[in-house]
Write a structure and sequence with these properties.
Strand content of chain A: 15-25%
Low-confidence stretches of chain A: none
Number of domains of chain A: 2
Shape of chain A: globular
Oligomer: homodimer
Chain lengths: 333, 333
């Protein structure tokens, strides 16, 4: 295992210190609770948004904390859920009196621990709503999950709901928007290589020199099919078909598209993939109205990518364009 | 070779189409000349900035085209210099009457071809200045270079000089600033793995399962030393020492720091590295006044990182903070 780390036990803590130091103008880091918070929070009267999950998916979620997006992100160990006391502490720390929305990716540990954290806070009178994101069309159940996994739509939900909270929407409205985003978002991923969890010390899985895995999860969980490597054109066609036929997306739809690198894929390949996706959407009468191309929800150093499409109404585009100021997404400010 | 591409001959063109489609609001792409330009250019009366070089280092340089940074970027094939006619066409296309600055990384082919492009334009009466960036402290001469290579300081020079041009500085002033940035910037890189150039089809070099290469170039050119993998703390200490003692940086200095991933290094490791660098700077009385942590000048999917430090005066910090709107760097707008 070749990693740029010190002790495997300190990876998450030391990275959190680095994030805090690099973005001291935006963030404060509670090292004890492994939680990243807005430096200017809690914001009185604003619905607060929290997400979190295992580390190793950076910039998600800590990179999305800041004005117009999350109020806090709870970090677990690499690919390990954060604990209920982290979510409890974060919820209390960010609540500005208007309630707190938990945006939870659908992994069994995350869902359970967020639920327990929410109950502890609700018992003390804090209004908490939770929305579980389950946008991955690849498989129904998987190694870490009952039902569909939560992947790229999470990033889009955090942006859109963060903007809604920032303009003053109430907890029910922000939670309903989050459910709508989840309902209208679909994703699928693939991998060329495995990643290696530092504490495990060896690759999560093995792929042959000419193999790829289609439909893989963000922890290297098995996908739909292991097959011989194909051209980018064929791969994007396969994945787009699975995504587009699932909602289904239709001619006339406008979408927000995320072409996401898994951590070890060069940006030049991601733009080549975006070109393929854009052509497919055009041919079907679907307009990509907004897009992100880059590393937004990663699996350590895995080579591969995922596509997320969100059917977006005008309201969502307004929220997308609203100012955001986080380490990983920034515009309008 | 596992790559997310179609035909190796089409990688650069197809990626350029993808970049143009994803950022149609900011950029226009001349596919014939493989050049990315500001959509709103040429800007009359503004000094124009051009850079360029081999592809495979994305987001450099195409990702830095836009308001407050570059006016055009010429793309060569992967790790291959663009040709003089590309620089000539780009220079003519962006000139708004105030002259054009060429920001050139010190690689023999780039320097030669930019020079020829400049001469062709000067013969037609366009004022062209060129500044060669040579900030890599690792080795004096290398596979592609006489003298020191141009690496991370290029990104910082493009930002700072772009801001100076945007506020109306004249060609001499912008060129002098670029020389000053180059004089005060130092970089060094390392790799855990090789990258694979698509057209070559096999890794540029081999590293053993417990080896790293210190001082490597952005094309995988050999560095200072191949040695057994060490801890992040030891690696950053070694690289920082080489950088800090070279200028030398001194107690009381404030710097702009770039902790740059080579393309295959997870962001969690880059933040851990930033923490080590920040501690070393603090211990020496050097203040990191601004920073970037992420993939800014890459070597395809190489695992590894580089550190760039630029001794910055107040003027440079003002230029750093000025608005910028490009695919890869955006703030203030």
């Amino acid at each position: 295992m070749k990693k740029l780390i010190n002790d495997t036990a300190d990876v998450v803590s030391e990275a959190l210190v680095g994030i805090g130091a690099a973005h001291a103008d935006l963030l404060r880091v509670d090292l004890d609770k492994k939680t990243i918070m807005r430096a200017d929070g809690p914001i009185q009267g604003k619905v607060a948004l929290i997400s979190g999950g295992g580390s190793g998916h950076e910039p998600m979620h800590g990179g999305y904390v800041g004005m117009g997006m999350l109020d806090a992100a709870c970090a677990g160990e690499v690919f390990t859920s954060p604990t209920p006391d982290q979510m409890e502490a974060a919820t209390k720390a960010v609540d500005g009196g208007a309630g707190v929305l938990h945006i939870v990716k659908n992994y069994t540990g995350d869902v359970m621990n967020f639920e327990m954290g929410a109950e502890l806070c609700q018992a003390e009178g804090i209004a908490v709503e939770a929305v579980v994101i389950n946008d991955d069309v690849a498989v129904q159940d998987s190694l870490y999950t009952a039902g569909r996994r939560g992947v790229g739509t999470t990033v889009l939900a955090e942006k859109l709901c963060g903007a809604a909270a920032e303009r003053g929407d109430d907890l029910q409205a922000v939670a309903n928007l989050c459910r709508k985003v989840n309902d209208q978002g679909r994703s699928m991923g693939m991998a060329l290589t495995s990643c290696t969890v530092p504490a495990a010390g060896k690759p999560t899985f093995e792929l042959g020199p000419n193999e790829m895995e289609i439909g893989i999860g963000i922890h290297g969980e098995p996908g739909r099919e292991r097959m011989e490597l194909k051209s980018a054109r064929e791969i994007v066609a396969m994945m787009s078909e699975a995504i587009l036929s699932d909602l289904p997306f239709e001619s006339g739809d406008q979408v927000i598209a995320l072409v996401n690198g898994m951590g070890g894929t060069p940006l030049i390949e991601l733009y080549l993939i975006y070109n393929e996706l854009n052509q497919i959407c055009q041919a079907r009468g679907i307009t990509i109205a907004r897009q992100l191309v880059g590393n937004y929800i990663t699996s350590l150093e895995m080579a591969g990518f995922s596509i997320t499409l969100l059917r977006a109404d005008e309201e969502m585009l307004v929220l997308w364009d609203a100012p955001v100021h986080t380490p990983a997404l920034r515009w309008g400010v």
